[in-house]
Write a structure and sequence with these properties.
It is built from 4 helices and 6 strands. Strands 1, 2, 3, 4, 5 and 6 form a 6-stranded mixed β-sheet that branches. The chain starts with a helix and ends with a strand. The protein has a domain of about 140 residues: 60s Ribosomal Protein L30, Chain: A, CATH 3.30.1330.60. About 25% of the residues have low confidence. The longest helix is centred in the first third of the chain and has 21 residues. By secondary structure, the chain is of the alpha+beta class.
Length: about 200
């Protein structure tokens, strides 16, 4: 009988304790913003060629673009041209880590490209923007785009009609050196120039 008198108060106290802890309001932790979300601030996560991404980006940035550097080139005007990848291969421009700024050391390459275009008014140009392997595909696609556009704008300042230039970004999809080293990454952060000649007999 004495045992039963002790059990009832203990059981009652246990029920009160469980009820009070079980009903306590739980405050959720901070929500991790999704990449590209307008609510997050991806700028705090680092920049391109890095693991986070540095700009607010759409989920799928366009691969080709014709913005910047003046008038917009009509893509249909590039259909009847053949690619000459060797002509300007020596004038590839390389970029610093997470940057689309053109360094002073690359000005000679830009001037050589401008001279080649000025020498033959029938030619056009394809600029390919590339990145190293680090970072998300979306961010590097956008960074490659910015690099190609920066080169297009620089050529426009050198007197080349931007209507003759098409840009495309490959992001990290086309490395020239697949190794995961600082030397390879430096080679892969680049903008390549492809000279376009009109097809004969068209």
């Amino acid at each position: 009988m004495k045992t039963m008198k002790l059990i009832y108060p203990l059981a009652f106290a246990l029920a009160i304790t469980l009820a009070s802890t079980g009903c306590r309001t739980h405050k959720p932790g901070p929500i991790t913003p999704l990449y590209g979300s307008q609510n997050g601030n991806p700028g705090d996560m680092g920049g391109g060629d890095t693991l986070g991404g540095g700009d607010k980006l759409p989920p799928e940035p366009p691969v080709t673009t014709q913005t910047g550097g003046g008038s917009v080139a009509d893509l249909t005007g590039f259909d009847n041209y053949t690619e000459d990848r060797a002509a300007l291969a020596a004038n590839t421009v390389h970029f610093a880590y997470d940057s689309s700024a053109i360094r002073n050391s690359e000005q000679a390459n830009l001037q050589a490209v401008a001279a080649a275009l000025s020498a033959d008014a029938t030619t056009k140009l394809l600029i390919e923007g590339n990145c190293d392997e680090r970072g998300t595909e979306e961010y590097n696609r956008s960074l490659g785009e910015r690099r190609a556009l920066a080169l297009r704008e620089a050529l426009a300042k050198l007197g080349i009609d931007p209507m003759r230039i098409r840009t495309i970004s490959y992001g990290k999809d086309k490395p020239v050196d697949p190794a995961s080293t600082a030397e390879a990454w430096a080679k892969n952060r680049r903008g390549e120039f492809v000279l376009l000649h009109p097809k004969t007999g068209v």
